[in-house]
Specification:
With 231 residues, this protein is an alpha+beta fold. Helix content is 18%, strand content 38%.
Length: 231
């Protein structure tokens, strides 16, 4: 029997590392009113699975609602379908799978929450020496959190940003990562899930709140009187 300690929580949410454990395949999809139920074949991630466990599917934290020795089921809510590429997959599609990080595990990637920020499009894919360079187009609301040599999760894979432009960024994929993940099947024009580095988002939030507090603190009676708001 393989025992695994409970998944680590970060701020109340389960943490993933972006190190893909295996590729699974979509066995079936039951589509509802902007929602879906996925049945996914897998092996490794099911060795210690329990109902209610979290598994990242293409970087999306989803809850196991049923399982057998060779497959598991998850529900996908409308908001998840709207923000991710799960609406574009079908039976037979390959997906990246990762269990939540367990206490005592090595931390090989970066903090990944499993909450996808949005999707990008592969704009270019080309060999470069022993690697493959992927250029991904993304909206400015995502690019603002992406920096050269920083971290980004693409379909749940922890990757280092090589460079960034006005509308896109580039990552370099080594042969091992390509062979073990769904990126090997992705081509120009394909959609990928993106999760930006959560630390950058926390820092931005802190700075915004700090500036808001400073702004409120500056609204003194003398300031309002000086600018004509008080008689």
């Amino acid at each position: 029997m393989i025992l695994k300690s409970p998944g680590i929580r970060y701020g109340g949410e389960y943490v993933f590392t972006g190190i893909i454990e295996e590729m699974g395949a979509i066995r079936s999809i039951k589509r509802g009113d902007r929602s879906a139920v996925l049945d996914i074949s897998a092996n490794k991630v099911l060795t210690d699975v329990k109902l209610g466990d979290s598994i990242a599917v293409n970087g999306i934290c989803l809850t196991v609602t049923a399982f057998s020795p060779r497959n598991f089921t998850v529900d996908v809510v409308p908001e998840t379908l709207k923000k991710t590429n799960l609406s574009m997959i079908g039976p037979g599609s390959r997906v990246n799978l990762e269990r939540a990080m367990a206490a005592g595990d090595r931390f090989g990637g970066h903090f990944v929450s499993g909450h996808v920020d949005g999707t990008g499009l592969i704009a270019d894919k080309r060999p470069y020496r022993n690697a493959v360079l992927y250029t991904v187009e993304a909206d400015d609301t995502l690019l603002r959190y992406i920096i050269p040599k920083g971290s980004v999760a693409i379909d749940g894979i922890s990757l280092t940003v090589v460079d960034i432009g006005d509308t896109c960024f580039t990552v370099s994929i080594i042969p091992h990562t390509l062979a073990e993940t769904v990126l090997q099947y992705k081509e120009k024009g394909d959609s990928v899930n993106l999760e930006c580095d959560m630390i950058g988002k926390y820092i931005e939030r802190f700075v915004i709140r700090h500036e808001q507090r400073k702004s409120r603190a500056s609204l003194t009676e003398s300031f309002l009187s000086e600018h004509g708001f008080l008689d």
